[in-house]
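Lab meeting, action items carried over

1. Structure of the two-component assembly. Owner: GW. Status: complete.
Input record:
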Amino acid sequence: MDYLLTEQQTMIRDLARKIAQEKIKPVAAHYDETEEFAWPIMKILADSDLFGVYLPEQYGGLGGGIMDMCLVTEELSRACGGIALGYAGTGLGTLPILLHGSEEQKKKYLPDIAKGKRLAAFCLTEAEAGSDAGAMRTSARKEGDKYILNGTKQWITNAGEAEIYTVIAITDKTKGIRGASAFIVEKGAKGMEFGKKEKKMGIRASATREVIFTDCEIPAANLISKEGMGFIVALKTLDTSRPGVASQAVGIAQGALDCALDYSRTRVQFGQPISSFQAIQHMLADMATQLEAARALTYATARMSDSGAKAMSKDSAMSKLFASEMAMKVTTDAVQIMGGYGYMRDYPAEKFMRDAKITQIYEGTSQIQRNVIAANLIKETLKK
Amino acid sequence: MNIIVCIKQVPNTTDVRIDPVTNTLIRDGVESVINPFDAYAIEEAVRLKERCGGKVTALTMGPPQAENALKEAISLGCDEGILVSDRKFAGSDTWATSYTLAAAIKKIGDYDVILCGKQASDGDTAQVGPGISAHLDIPQVTYVKKIREIDEKTAKVERMTEEGYDVVETPLPCLLTVVKEINTPRMPSLKGLMRAKAAKPLKWTADDLEADPAALGLDGSPTRVVKIFTPETRKGGELISGSSAEVAKELAELLKGEVI
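Predicted assembly:
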């Protein structure tokens, strides 16, 4: 389907596709197996200017928006959802600075991120605070011109690899979620450590670790926005980033459909390619249709975000919910079309299925997305 | 350091088809790309610039659409492109091509290093690079796999041979043809692609060059292609099995039957 991309967006998509197909696809299985972080690929993405597509030109970016970031994430995910996350996770970690950071903070951090010189990470989740982010315990206490952070963030994408961390912590326990604040913590800060690397079902090329703060001192100037704004920063960040997860899901599903389609045309059973059987054709048709619907919703949401829409929690949740559910279904069907071969790790189909699962879980589970959608639906009714 | 990289647009296929009547390549319906070996020359030129400073000019001779190859070269880090294009150049063999490119390089004037791919993937002659250096009367080193040292006056390079490599020192200006072992070409960058989109490569015709008209194109080409054909694929050998004595005996019988 033609999404009427701008000339620059077409260029971005084509370059991301070229890198994904020529450089990532051949090594995707390797990084999945070894669970190493794909630094050589990050270097290629950096040198190609892809880290800067959504950042303003005055900070060394290319002046595009979330739509541009989605195009890159989708193409990279089509080759490997895990490697793509090194890129997309950096976007997530950068959004709090981009959306709410001061001019000084933007000048200090965005140019390095745009160049891909430093990766970023977003630290919200804790052991006891998953879907219930308000239950977080990590605290930040102001002492003179410093904040002292204590607590442990869990399952942080890019942790250990990234150099710039945006962290949500409680500055005033008495105010509940209104007592949360957002901070920038640079890797190497005294009192900041990383936990062991998690072993995951999918997206295994992505690094996931705990980020542990023990009397970690950071300059007071690293507070993003104002004290008490942490939750708003986090929610706005997630509203903006969810089309990114949706595009990761779309890319993963496209990668799976690509393999299932190729396989169906070469696999001969009963004397003919299995693609000549209606049972397979209908599966492929459904997969492609669901995929295109998810892509359309994702792009529409990303464009809405770029147009400066203020309230878009519902739309952003819809794109993430629909695309991630679609990805799980399409990747499962891709494995089914490939039968025993699909189940084998010699073929990429099962990896796409493992990678797809996380998109239903992180940055808000599918159930939380439904809560957000329903709550907004009801709120809209009350306004009428 | 002023670096010139000579590139050629070739059909994007290793399975080149030949027109049986004219004995020339069939280019219709085949996408054109930068000759793969030239991609290494472009990368090395850009690395040289990053190492020593200066400017990289990409140069090609070809039909108007060869401008795309120059734009691609610019997206990969070359500073500017020059397209030498004229009906009068049609039918050039390697002698006339290298003569024309040398004339264009003389017009560029100030240069320190000329880089070429070791050969083009369509014609496979490996003659144009050395031809340019001969026409310019400058030293050449072919099959370069590493530029060890380089300054304004000399370059020390490794020249690949079948059994290893030679270390060659040459004064500048010089011409180097490079092999794929020399580097891994980078991916284009978005900023490079945008620069390439805006770039307007210079276009020079025969009239812009100080060249003998009789030495250009088909008339200036001493080469006559008598016949181009696809060699028959070799059939598989015959496997003799049995004990050593039996095999030796049978082999000897077979060899006796052949006129050796």
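2. GW to write a short summary for the group page. Key points so far: The interface with chain B takes residues 7-8, 11-12, 15, 18-19, 22-23, 44, 47-50, 52-53, 62 of chain A (CB under 8 Å). Residues 230-266 of chain A form the longest helix (37 residues).
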